[in-house]
Amino acid sequence: MKPYRLLETSKKYTEYDMIQKHTEVAPFPDVRARLLFLFLSQAGDSRLQENREELFPLVTGLVQMALDTHDRIDTSSAYQREEQMRSRQLNVLAGDYFSSRFYELLAKAGEIGMVARLSEAICENNRLKMDLYVQSNESDVTAAHYMEASIQLKMQLFLSFTSYIDPSAHQLWEQMLYWFSRCEWLATELKAGSNVQPFGEYGLYYVLGQSAPADHSRLKMEASSEDVARYRGEWEARYGIQAHLEQLLQHSLVAINERLQQENHTELAAAVSELTSSYAALVHQV
């Protein structure tokens, strides 16, 4: 299998008529899955001879979809129309469904050890989410902390496979996973604007960090008001949130290129350039 086919392969496990009709699930983490494929395929490990380099990125992507889809569940107690209720229920079921496919694929392949390893990673992922949730409700979370915590959540499952990667490439793998997870998170924020997340929103944290403490209560009220779209427009005009995110994304792309040039990673650098192209295009478009 070629790395670019992972997304296509995942569709036969994720596309379900009822889900597609009534709700929108989280996307397959194609870039992180392809990055894992690239490093596993270069490992030269005898344990990867039975298509593990294809299976592991696929099942990890399915688990990530399950977790991200559950994060989209609206936990508001406010009244919801039947269509909204159905969408919420299907987000719960869709996340469970994607998880079941992960168990099924690994069990059929006899990879019981990897079921345990990924299950541990899921537990750690949920622990990190709880920590971030508590911090965001009990204290003022900075934009930088929120971003870094979000990146760690994207990395957690994929770090489970470090032992299958050539030891000489462990550091490079973890660095590339960090920078690509950062790129993915920033690209999502750029495309969505001030996108509401389970733990708050980056735009608000950034604005709070750029404003006087006396204004914080007012800004938080604006973030939760019914006229939030107008306030977000005002924040953008005053604080340049999008330009700030674009600058962070550009810095991430530079870090990836500089790291690959430090050593002789010609083949990997060529493959990675395909993964960065969509992010580079996004920077130029903004």
TrEMBL record:
It comes from the Bacteria. InterPro entries: HEPPP_synth_su1 (IPR009920). It comes from Paenibacillus wenxiniae. This is Heptaprenyl diphosphate synthase component 1.
